[in-house]
Amino acid sequence: MLNDPVLVNDWHVVAYAPNLKEGKPLAARLLEEDIVLWRVGERIHAWRDLCIHRGTRLSLGKVENDTLICPYHGWTYNEEGQCIRIPAHPNQQPPAKACAKVYQAQEKYGWIWVTPGNPRKDVPEFPQWDDQSFHKIHCGPYTFKASGPRAIENFLDVTHFPFVHQGYLGDPNFPEINDYEAEISPDGVVARDIMVWQPDPDGSGKGAYVTYTYTVTRPLTAYFVKSSEGPRFAMYFTVTPVAQDTSIAWTYVAMDYENKPDEEIRAFEDMITWQDVPIVESQRPELLPLDLQAELHLRSDRTAIAYRKWLSQIGLTFGTA
Ligand code: FES
Ligand code: CO
């Protein structure tokens, strides 16, 4: 695991919770390390995916009687990660050193979150989650062969809408962006009242200006709320730092109106993201440059500038240059 204290001491999504079934371990990858997930009812376990005996992947094993059993020689680990049975020596107490590397894990927003460290803060907020007026639709996951900060910065960028998402999220005849404010605080970035012309913002078939407000709560988690006349649409976006150059984006859209079946909305978000992926994967340098002298910045890039400044302030190294 690369030693980036900022990301080590943060929570990261590693799985969609419904995919972690009782009785079957699930493999994931976070910060260049393999992780095995398993559950006993509500209790979620996340360990380094490695049996201390001969280094086999525990995720290839099975869950039985609230234990995880290695597929190779059957070493049996309890929920605390301690080996309690070595089948070749049934009468011998397993050595205390025979234990798994255990991480903190929890289920929230329908995802499994893991941290390898000791975060000061809990899982990042998702204000629409408990707001019953918003209907939530899970989308993704989407793999980017790109750094996490590059993927987040693309999520924060509205000036690409008329070009990358022409006809869907923007119109090349109306590419201009208003002056808006992006504020940095120790907790992140908020960029308010960014106006974007969209051909059909709410499915009514009419073009309109919509207003975006973006909130960055963690180096790799952000959301926006967009509103036009009436309807509100929010999107929550969090990225798993798999490796410096590999990221997985997990998202929810949240809407306080309904005009289409969930499947259609998911298909739309998939299409939009697959428009973004080749663009983001093509960016060089691969790691997001935090030196503001690198690349060119204009007024309309305020959110990105604030994001880069904030990442410098908190000392993020993973995925940045
Ligand atoms: Fe796991 Fe031997 S490698 S029991
Ligand atoms: Co895009």
TrEMBL record:
Keywords carried by this UniProt record: 2Fe-2S, Dioxygenase, Iron, Iron-sulfur, Metal-binding, Oxidoreductase
InterPro entries under this entry? ARHD_Rieske_2Fe_2S, Cholesterol_7-desaturase, Rieske_2Fe-2S, Rieske_2Fe-2S_sf, VanA_C_cat
Q: Where is the Rieske domain?
A: 11-114
Specify whether Iron is a keyword of the entry.
Answer: yes
Q: Which GO terms describe its molecular function?
A: 2 iron, 2 sulfur cluster binding; dioxygenase activity; iron ion binding; monooxygenase activity; oxidoreductase activity, acting on paired donors, with incorporation or reduction of molecular oxygen
Q: One Pfam family for this entry, by name?
A: VanA_C
Name of this protein: Aromatic ring-hydroxylating dioxygenase subunit alpha
Q: Which organism is it from?
A: Ktedonosporobacter rubrisoli
